[in-house]
Specification:
71 residues; two-stranded antiparallel ribbon; binds zinc ion
Length: 71
């Protein structure tokens, strides 16, 4: 049963396929601390559910912003 919903695209999907921004703990840069603050500004917390596609989008988007912020 598809009982989970992505906060971004609002698609329904299986509970086991939930992604959260917590997975960004495992990337080296930007730091997780930076990521949490970045998503906080977008109104996203560590407990919001997303599908794989949207979390990938956020990953790229945040990395881009982080690179820009270094200039
Ligand atoms: Zn989504």
């Amino acid at each position: 049963m598809k009982n989970a919903q992505c906060k971004k695209c609002l698609n329904k999907f299986h509970q086991k396929d939930i992604y959260t921004i917590q997975q960004f703990q495992y990337r080296k840069l930007p730091s997780y601390e930076w990521s949490v603050k970045y998503f906080e500004k977008l109104g996203i917390t560590e407990w919001d559910s997303f599908c794989e596609a949207c979390v990938t989008d956020y990953s790229k988007e945040s990395e881009k912003k982080w690179n820009e912020s270094k200039i």
